[in-house]
Amino acid sequence: MAREGLDGRAERGASEGGGEGSVRAALEGEDARERLFRLGAEALTDPELLGLLWGAGARTRALAEQLLAPAGGLKALVQQDPRALCARPGLGQLRTAQLLAALELGRRAQRVVERRPRLRTPRDIATYLAPQLGALRREVFHVLCFNARNVLLLDARVAEGTINACMVDPREVFAAAITARATAIVLAHNHPSGDPEPSAQDVGLTAQLVEAGRMLGIKVLDHVVLGSGNYVSMRERGDVPPLEGEDRGPWRMAGERG
Asked: Which residue among 54, 64, 84, 204 sits deepest, i.e. has the most Cβ atoms within 10 Å of its Cβ?
């Protein structure tokens, strides 16, 4: 006899003529729901979570496993073009929309709650930006604008590119800083490949922007490159010239005394 689940779905499946397969699918989905409430969502595998998102049962979990295996995991799957996902067997617009909506909710839940947070180190910058940039399929370039008290005044996305390149106009970078009346900025962009190692173009652009900042009286503190769960601070690497009166190494925000 099918046992009663959280919402009685297993029993109803049998009584409505779903047969033994429907009962088994409902019970498996019920087990995943029970473990979620008992152990937390982090205890479930990616296929199990997708199965719950799309409707508990062995069929949807099998679909999730088939999609995740060749894609290289959840992150690789969601980095695909939404139209390509819709065309995958068993997905369609509804399940694709559910998947992308769930991902976006997760990203938003990780965002810094403070409207104007203090970000004092490269790690703070990477932690702040990771929810926005972590799963993007293309490179984007951000300028984080700060006042003399280390408070973030503006986080401006000034350029969007392709999977491995992003053209940045220095005028857009400093237009954002001037608009925010910033005394210092941190440059940041992502590498969708997952490898945060700066390219020669990244180093050259940074040198150009540092020099432009000197002429405008705006300090370029760092250029942080985000990869897959990691980052590189070009200041710490020595690719950004030290600020006047400071040695190479970890930077302090404008106006911060250590």
From this structure: 64
